[in-house]
Amino acid sequence: MPRKISPFIREQVRQRAAVLCEYCHTDEHWQLVPFTLDHILPTSEGGDDTLENLALACFHCNRHKSDKQSVFDADTQNVIPLFNPRRMLWAEHFIWSADGLRVLPQSDIGHVTIKWLELNRERVQRIRQDDIAINRHPPLADPRESS
Ligand SMILES: [Zn+2]
Fold it and tell me: Fewest C-beta in 10 Å: which of 109, 122, 132, 143?
């Protein structure tokens, strides 16, 4: 069961993320349902509801991340951490494909996160395609990276 997080904290997480899912960078503005709050360290492992442990995540990314912080990668036969939006910069692990439809990995972390969270699932690629047509995709660079 998701825990109740105060609207104040939730709004701070949203603004910090510039209302993008912090994994797939889908923009919450254009979605039918509000995004969820992901506990980076899961509550089952003692993760709390502080800003430092929360990330804005679309339903799909949150569900696929679940309580994982790292996954076994069959390609490299290694346990590799998933992208952690509080400790890592998106642009260091991911880049948009030239046509803007796909997230491409820039690191092993990017590679396993794309695979595990299905950042290029068919539905999100269709959304990106529609958004490109009206100039609202790809999103502007992560605001935290522009300073
Ligand atoms: Zn997402």
Answer: 122
